[in-house]
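Document type: protein sequence-to-structure record

Subject area: structural biology

Format: plain text, a pair of labelled lines:
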Amino acid sequence: MPRCADCRQMKDPSEFPRNRSTRSGLHPYCKPCHNIRTRESVRKSGGSRKYHLKRRYGLTLEHFDRLVERQGGLCAICREAPATDVDHDHKTGRVRGILCEPCNGTIGLFHDDPAIVRRAIDYLIEHGAS
């Protein structure tokens, strides 16, 4: 049975979050200790939005706001809806821009593949979409 690195208690493996980067496949802290650590990190970073932007995309809230401002506050694709979601390359992690939720979800569903997007365009043209 693994021992939590914080509370030092031996616990069943089901009491630990999964972590693919460790040899055991488990996080070194049990779920309650892990939750306490995460809440503290979020609090120190200034809130969940700042924490998420920094941890996931390496962006500060100020950098995010500058990207949105550069786009005129609108989605980089449809240019109609407010820009709210970070779009990034799933292979490199590089931030490409800020999109609205529907546009970001759509390119995700297209697996960031320009060939699929081109086929979608051809399909719409062929079937009389404006």
